[in-house]
Amino acid sequence: MRITAGLLLLLPQLEELAILPVHNPTHRIVHLRDRHFVSKAMYAADLRANSEEPLTDQEIDKAYERLLEEVEQVTNHQRLVGAAAPALATLG
C-alpha cells in the first residue's frame, strides 16, 4: 500500500504535515509529537495554576481521565504510523 500525504492527513491527531522538496532524497524523516504521561498530582497542579476559577477534585478527576484517553489515542495513532513506516519511503 502506498502511503500518500492525503492518507496521512486523515489521521485524527495530525496537526501538521510538511513535505519539503529535496533533490535525490536518501532518507525520509518523520517527526512524531505526542502527549506525554504526567502524574495526576502534576496535572492537577498545572490545571489549578492556570485556572481562573477554583477546581474541585471531581473536575480534576474528569480532566485527568480525558488526558489519559488522549494519551492512549495518540499512542494508538503513532503505532499505526509506525506500522506504516516502511511504506513512508514511497510518500508522494
Give a written overview of the molecule.
The protein is mostly helical and 92 residues long. The chain has helices at residues 5-9, 40-49, 57-83. The longest helix has 27 residues, at 57-83. 0% of the residues are buried.
Largest sheet: none
What is the approximate shape?
elongated
Measured as a percent range, the helix fraction is 40-55%
Termini Cα gap: 12 Å
Q: Sketch the topology as an H/E string, one letter per element.
A: HHH
Write the layout of secondary structure elements.
Elements: H1 5-9, H2 40-49, H3 57-83
Features:
92 residues, mainly alpha, 46% helix, elongated
Q: How would you briefly describe this protein structure?
A:
With 92 residues, this protein is mainly α. The protein has 3 helices and no strands.
